[in-house]
Amino acid sequence: MLPRFICLLLLWGSSCFGFKSFQQRIPNGDMVPHSCKPNFLWHGLGHENELGGGARNSFGLDFAAAGLKWTKELCEKDSDGDGRTNGQELGDPNCTWKENSTPETNQGLSHPGVCEPHDSDLCKPKNTWLNCELESFKCDAIKSPEVKNLTIRFPNTSVPNFETNYFCMTFDLPTDGDYHVIAMTPVIDNVNVMHHILLFGCDSDKQGEASGPTACEMGSVQCNTLFGAWTVGSAGQCLYHEAGIRIGQKGIKRVLMQVHWNNPEMRDDYSDSSGMTLHYTPKLRPNSAVMLMVGQWYLEIPPGRERHAESAVCSKEDTHRLLTGPIKIVRALNHMHYLGREESLEIIRNEKRIAYVTNETTYSYDRPKFVTISPPLEIQPGDEIKTTCVFKSKNKKKTTFSGRGTSDEMCLGFMVVFPAENLLSRTCATWRSLSLTKLYRDLNPYGCNITNFFNLSHPDTRPLLEKLENNCKPFSICLEECKEVVKEVRKHPCLSGDVGKYIVHRAAQMFNGDFPRFLSLLQSCDVEMLKDKQVQRLTNNNESSGSVSPRRHLELIVSFLCVTLILLI
Ligand SMILES: *[C@@H]1O[C@H](CO)[C@@H](O)[C@H](O)[C@H]1NC(C)=O
Ligand SMILES: *[C@@H]1O[C@H](CO)[C@@H](O)[C@H](O)[C@H]1NC(C)=O
Ligand SMILES: *[C@@H]1O[C@H](CO)[C@@H](O)[C@H](O)[C@H]1NC(C)=O
Ligand SMILES: *[C@@H]1O[C@H](CO)[C@@H](O)[C@H](O)[C@H]1NC(C)=O
Ligand SMILES: *[C@@H]1O[C@H](CO)[C@@H](O)[C@H](O)[C@H]1NC(C)=O
Ligand SMILES: *[C@@H]1O[C@H](CO)[C@@H](O)[C@H](O)[C@H]1NC(C)=O
Ligand SMILES: *[C@@H]1O[C@H](CO)[C@@H](O)[C@H](O)[C@H]1NC(C)=O
């Protein structure tokens, strides 16, 4: 154990932690669901306070008595007296789990220190300390007499029996005046499935969006101005007093409400009619506010990691592209999914960090912390916004990618900023090192016009396809004459570097048109070309061995020693 730890320390330096929380000494210790708040996790497993600290619950007392260790005796005990042993509640029914190993299951977990079902006749008397109340909402501004409200919500709709469901519906906003929305509060009907709500403003002159609840994608072409959000655990948002979100005659006239229902048990008997209440005022505030999204769209998180960091930078060039003047941030929200542990958003000016917008070291998907930035923080054109996300994939057996599902991951940051007129686009995100702002806003970014490239009948792309068609066969039959052609075609700016990876990634999601065929021709010699490369590397070996840098050399020795040690243990 110790040598392995030292190895990790040597290899990864500061990213390796000696610190072990109690959560790690208990099977599935960081995945235990809350007993009476659906979709919440119980973080301080041994405590009466779900966030930890203070009085211990019955499981916490037994855990302490066992020397803060997961013993067979503790595993076989039923600390909360609800008829399930601690091991059964925590996914270790046979009491075989050892620290750092993967528990037998992570399905059907329950709390070992709370008698469940929490409101049954048996449990009620034991759970007098249990707190089922959610955070309360404070916003004095909505008490002003001129403030009106509008509740938009789904009609009672049945929730499909899929794990992840996105449903959308559009609503008309009042157009009898010019208003600022100053607060939003959730109206949650079915707490068992409600995960988050996003509100997007729509181009008012376009039609065709869902007039009733319809299954939908993450975004919409006509409704793409994100301006409001609710996630599990939040009681609502109250806007900074100098700014509001413009609706009505001179603002957003229609909204698309997108609801994410999470139904991991895939039940088919759930229905929901959740929504949001918008609080709006005709007394306009001095500024209009909008939401700016930053982050990394490409994630690849290896399994079994205690810590895996990803980052993204909205660069100097990007903020010059996006901003016509300074903007101020008043609120911010980190967004990852279940593997997320830490996230920060930093503002960097002249290579120096001037402030953290968010800095969460105990991130939890269930407890979104919409932070209020007071006084508001200014971003100038030429500043950088850096997003850093840290994931823990200890319990995962497979690589996790970015995606919309709850078992996929995200690394995003949302910021409410004003004045709206200084911001030309609402997102500044990257895909690996690529600036999507640049890719979609510049005329010829990275020498590649992505719109034209995806159009295989466009004169820029047509010759590439023809060359491939004439020399290659699709679906991995590699022709000798194809190799050279592929090498040449891959030199195209749209197919090289990260742009090329992005295009291939996007193309792999396309199911119609000629592009999949283009891709299969392009990739038909991949394996053979890789083999050729290896043969070449072996023949070249004599020259490269003399030029290994001293640092690389040290790393190789350390890795070699580590592998040896690990094999010996
Ligand atoms: C756990 O015990 C059950 C029943 O006793 C058995 O079917 C199962 O194979 C055991 N699992 C392991 C991993 O030993
Ligand atoms: C909406 O406004 C009405 C009065 O116009 C008020 O009675 C009601 O409580 C408000 N609803 C919310 C959710 O604030
Ligand atoms: C909602 O609809 C479901 C059937 O789809 C029904 O069982 C349920 O009672 C309805 N709920 C309300 C509040 O009307
Ligand atoms: C970020 O949070 C951690 C833990 O709360 C704290 O130690 C650190 O100083 C914070 N950094 C900044 C710049 O606020
Ligand atoms: C690509 O080029 C076309 C003209 O050929 C232009 O209209 C379009 O805006 C360009 N697309 C991007 C993303 O720059
Ligand atoms: C593709 O390019 C051709 C030739 O430039 C053009 O006529 C056609 O409209 C383009 N198709 C799309 C969908 O943009
Ligand atoms: C080793 O490298 C030299 C040039 O650096 C080359 O001429 C020679 O062929 C190489 N030897 C082998 C066995 O590849």
From TrEMBL:
<dbReference type="GO" id="GO:0005507">
    <property type="term" value="F:copper ion binding"/>
</dbReference>
<dbReference type="InterPro" id="IPR014784">
    <property type="entry name" value="Cu2_ascorb_mOase-like_C"/>
</dbReference>
<feature type="signal peptide">
    <location>
        <begin position="1"/>
        <end position="18"/>
    </location>
</feature>
<keyword id="KW-1015">Disulfide bond</keyword>
<dbReference type="Pfam" id="PF24784">
    <property type="entry name" value="Temptin_C"/>
</dbReference>
<keyword id="KW-0732">Signal</keyword>
<dbReference type="GO" id="GO:0004500">
    <property type="term" value="F:dopamine beta-monooxygenase activity"/>
</dbReference>
<feature type="region of interest" description="Disordered">
    <location>
        <begin position="78"/>
        <end position="111"/>
    </location>
</feature>
<dbReference type="InterPro" id="IPR024548">
    <property type="entry name" value="Cu2_monoox_C"/>
</dbReference>
<dbReference type="InterPro" id="IPR000945">
    <property type="entry name" value="DBH-like"/>
</dbReference>
<feature type="domain" description="Copper type II ascorbate-dependent monooxygenase C-terminal">
    <location>
        <begin position="291"/>
        <end position="429"/>
    </location>
</feature>
<dbReference type="Pfam" id="PF01082">
    <property type="entry name" value="Cu2_monooxygen"/>
</dbReference>
<feature type="domain" description="Temptin Cys/Cys disulfide">
    <location>
        <begin position="18"/>
        <end position="114"/>
    </location>
</feature>
<keyword id="KW-0325">Glycoprotein</keyword>
<dbReference type="Pfam" id="PF03712">
    <property type="entry name" value="Cu2_monoox_C"/>
</dbReference>
<dbReference type="InterPro" id="IPR008977">
    <property type="entry name" value="PHM/PNGase_F_dom_sf"/>
</dbReference>
<dbReference type="InterPro" id="IPR000323">
    <property type="entry name" value="Cu2_ascorb_mOase_N"/>
</dbReference>
<dbReference type="InterPro" id="IPR036939">
    <property type="entry name" value="Cu2_ascorb_mOase_N_sf"/>
</dbReference>
<feature type="compositionally biased region" description="Polar residues">
    <location>
        <begin position="97"/>
        <end position="109"/>
    </location>
</feature>
<dbReference type="InterPro" id="IPR057626">
    <property type="entry name" value="S-S_Temptin"/>
</dbReference>
<feature type="domain" description="Copper type II ascorbate-dependent monooxygenase N-terminal">
    <location>
        <begin position="151"/>
        <end position="266"/>
    </location>
</feature>
<protein>
    <recommendedName>
        <fullName>Temptin</fullName>
    </recommendedName>
</protein>
